Amino acid sequence: MRGRWSLLALVAAVVVCAGLAQTSPGHAVLRDVGLYEVPASFTELAFTDAGALPDTLEPVKGPVPVSFSLHNVSASPQTYQWSIALTHDGKSKVKATGTVGVPAQGKATVTKSVTPCGTGPEVQVVVRLASPAESINFWVLCPASTATPQPTGGT
Question: Are residues 12 and 87 in the same domain?
């Protein structure tokens, strides 16, 4: 009979400890002894359809849609400041900016159109977040008729 009560007391203690471990003070104790980690908090930034991004534009091609997604992997909502810039020969020009709110564990998609050609024959399209500092990019080759003429060296 005594063994049965000991087992019952042990089960009750385990149940009480498991319940306490689910509280904030319980998390603090478990974290202090190395048995609990705060869940990861980060942002995923990606093009929504990277395979559809152009690498070469036709002479009559105008604006290019740039669509990217944000995934807020955290326990609280976040507001992100983003920009889309065109870079050629080390010079960057911001073509679009904005902010987007994303709920905790949520996703958002932003789509803007930019006209990369006219800047140079090869242009880098860069999507940036201000905080966290993240960026993604792709390159576009512009047709000769819309690219800025490049000086040629003579002899």
Answer: no
Same domain, 94 and 28: no
Reduced to 3 states (helix: H, G, I; strand: E, B; else coil), residue 60 is coil
Q: How far is CA 72 from CA 13, 43, 106, in A?
A: 38, 5, 5
* DSSP category for residue 72: E
Residues 21 and 91 in one domain: no
DSSP 8-state symbol, 56: B
Containing domain of residue 105, as a range?
42-141
Q: What is the pTM for the complete model shown?
A: 0.69
Q: What is the pLDDT of residues 24-78, one digit of tens each?
A: 676 677 777 776 666 778 999 999 999 988 888 776 567 889 999 999 999 999 9
